[in-house]
Design a protein that fits this description.
139 residues, six-stranded mixed beta sheet, two-stranded antiparallel ribbon, Insect_cuticle, cuticle, Cuticle_Struct_Prot
Length: 139
């Protein structure tokens, strides 16, 4: 006999903020089971580079809005994500930096500091192109 008893969806909420000499990282999320989730995460590094991602996941799908001043980003809205960039448009693309998925190569900023990339690896974890990963670029 197979029993199919499911508990009712319960509301939840969590959040954290970490501040140190490298900058600040934060995340918060709330929801009701798997029915509706709303949250945000982001960082500000010690140079003032920041990214804030606000998201909602519900029966209509996943929707995210990204606010950033990361060099190399532009106001483009790929795959139902709205991006609001205040970055200077003249920075080159590099190896490292922001990666769209772990192990990927994405738009990055090598800067004048000997090719230092920055960004968070995809899937909510640190990966290739992660924060502090050396970049290889045009500068």
């Amino acid at each position: 006999m197979i029993c199919k008893h499911y508990a009712a969806a319960k509301p939840y909420a969590f959040g954290y903020t970490v501040k140190d000499h490298h900058g600040e990282k934060h995340r918060q999320e709330s929801g009701i089971g798997g029915q509706h989730v709303k949250g945000s995460y982001g960082f500000t590094d010690d140079r003032g580079i920041h990214r804030q991602v606000d998201y909602v996941a519900d029966h209509g799908g996943f929707k995210a809005s990204v606010k950033t001043n990361e060099p190399g980003t532009a106001n483009q809205d790929p795959a139902a994500v709205s991006i609001h960039s205040s970055a200077h448009p003249y920075f080159g693309a590099g190896h490292g930096g922001y990666a769209g998925h772990a192990g990927g190569h994405g738009q990055g900023w090598t800067g004048a500091w000997g090719g230092q990339g920055y960004g968070w690896g995809g899937h909510g974890a640190y990966g290739h192109g992660a924060y502090g990963h050396d970049g290889h670029g045009l500068w």
